[in-house]
Amino acid sequence: MHRIRWILGVAVANALVVLLAAPVTNARPASAQATSVTVKMKEFKFILSRTTVHHGKVIFTVINIGKINHDFKINGKKTPSIAPGKRAKLVVTFATAGRYRYLCLIGQHWKFGMKGVLKVT
């Protein structure tokens, strides 16, 4: 019984040494990770998968589920005109917290409700 305890103690000690000595190579600070947001567009509104994000890099997947072309503009960046049934990606970095307006610039779609505000914390 004494020998089994000794063997188990040595095994546990060796495991701890290996774990503590192993470098952590995949660790990234939470602020460095990108946030994903899906944006669905149709006449005449946007549907965002989330309306609040952390500051930093945000990847918008913009999908036109409507019947006419639309685009998506936020923080000085804009998608091209997206045809019905098509999608585009837009990568935007928000350096500071705040409220960022988004809208569709095609025609006057924004006047008919294709606009909103994304909260960045």
Question: In short, what is this structure?
Answer:
Strand 1 (35-42) and strand 2 form a beta hairpin. The chain has one helix at residues 2-21, and strands spanning 35-42, 45-48, 52-53, 56-64, 73-74, 77-78, 87-94, 98-103, 115-120. Helices cover 17% and strands 39% of the residues.
Describe it.
The protein is an alpha+beta fold and 121 residues long. The chain has one helix spanning 2-21; strands at residues 35-42, 45-48, 52-53, 56-64, 73-74, 77-78, 87-94, 98-103, 115-120. The strands form two sheets. A five-stranded mixed sheet has the order 3-9-8-5-6, with no helix packed on it. A four-stranded mixed sheet has the order 2-1-4-7, with no helix packed on it. The relative contact order is 0.18. The model is unreliable at 16-28 (pLDDT under 50).
The total beta strand count reads 9
Along the chain, the helix and strand elements come as HEEEEEEEEE
CATH superfamily: Cupredoxins -  blue copper proteins
Query: In terms of structural class, how would the helical and strand content be classed?
Result: alpha+beta
Query: What gap, in angstroms, lies between the N and C termini?
Result: 58 Å
Please give the largest β-sheet: 5 strands, mixed
Beta-strand portion reads 35-45%
Estimated helix fraction: 10-25%
| Assembly state of the chains shown | single chain
What is the CA-based Rg, rounded? 24 Å
- Describe the global form: globular
Strand order of the largest sheet: 3-9-8-5-6
Q: Count up the domains.
A: 1
Which residue ranges are poorly predicted, with pLDDT under 50 across at least 5 consecutive positions? 16-28
CATH architectural designation: Sandwich
Q: Mean pLDDT, rounded to whole units? A: 85
**Number of helix segments?**
1
CATH class identity = Mainly Beta
* CATH fold topology: Immunoglobulin-like
